[in-house]
Design a protein that fits this description.
2 copies of one chain form a homodimer. In chain A, 38% of the residues lie in helices and 16% in strands. By secondary structure, chain A is of the alpha/beta class. Chain A has a single domain, classed as Cytidine Deaminase, domain 2, CATH 3.40.140. In chain A, helix 2 packs parallel to helix 7 and helix 3 runs parallel beside helix 4. The longest helix of chain A is centred in the N-terminal third of the chain and has 17 residues.
């Protein structure tokens, strides 16, 4: 288009130095440590907010994608860590859904509970499990708004077959939120 | 990245034939007619689901961007019409928010009430007004799920200064939903 510049979404250039794409991540803790490592690197490198995520094949532990908050870096309010993980996973698989008959089930592991946008996208993404690190109240202490998420919101996803786990390695995830606060990172959409 | 192919987000090639970028859209009806025209063209051209949106400067009626459902076309579950409109507006303005001190206020006009993801993104986008055509129940009759949206969800946005208008040209917006149904378009994420 003449009026709108092309939109290109990509990872910051440090990703391959933090992510081992060949490894099998076999436990919830290993998977969450990767999401937290991504969130930490995003803060340390100054490429975005303190939020990281990853998508895995549930059974095999194969890593499909990671995501890191890229709102400020890419001038795009929709690019929370979870959204980056969904988009890149679907680009890699060449499909708008991660749920296919007879195919592997997928899960999203995120360093902080998803905001309203990301929780909605979780439903559309086709993942069948959601594992969260920090609580929404932890993010709100930094004045990050989480949007209109209610207990019924999580129940809505669970009724549609998505298992939700809260508080996985919450303390480790919180260390990155505190690192961001102490480094005075910008609170966009505060 | 080696593992993830680059993600490029663009409009289908018919956009400039439907959208008059120079025109000032001065009334709610004119603005909604554009969003509906975009939704219709998306169905007629077979480039996506029956949902269109546009972002305007509230006072001047200047058109900033349009958006059309691009989930299947671009293999990306996040690309609802509203999300396309936010991303392209922010790319055009070179900013992750449409709200700037002293700058023009913006509004989102969408042919159907936003799903949970898009409603969350509405909050992050910086628009100060949301105008909706078809009701969520209209979309659900086609078996499009709207996700966890509750009356409190709209109230949450209103409390943060976003004015919401429902049912603008609802009948015209619904004609496109019916067109999609009669053409047996795919109901992704149904």
């Amino acid at each position: 288009m003449s009026i709108i510049p092309p939109i290109r979404i990509d990872y910051p250039d440090w990703v391959d130095s933090v992510v081992d794409w060949e490894r099998r991540y076999t436990s919830d803790e290993e998977r969450m440590r990767l999401a937290i490592a991504v969130s930490r690197e995003n803060v340390v490198r100054g490429t975005g907010g303190p939020f990281g995520a990853a998508i895995f094949e549930m059974e095999s532990g194969r890593l499909v994608s990671v995501g890191m908050n890229s709102v400020v870096r890419l001038n795009n309010c929709t690019l929370h860590g979870e959204m980056m993980a969904f988009m890149t996973a679907q680009a890699r698989l060449g499909s708008f859904t991660l749920r296919h008959e007879g195919g592997p089930a997928h899960e999203l592991v995120t360093s902080c509970e998803p905001c309203a946008m990301c929780l909605g996208a979780t439903l559309w993404s086709g993942v069948q499990r959601l594992v969260c690190g920090a609580h929404r109240d932890d993010a709100r202490r930094l004045r990050f708004d989480e949007g209109p998420v209610f207990p019924e919101s999580h129940a809505y996803l669970e009724e549609r077959g998505i298992q939700i786990v809260h508080g996985m390695l919450r303390a480790e995830a919180n260390e990155v939120l505190e690192l961001y606060r102490s480094s005075s990172g910008p609170i966009y959409n505060g």
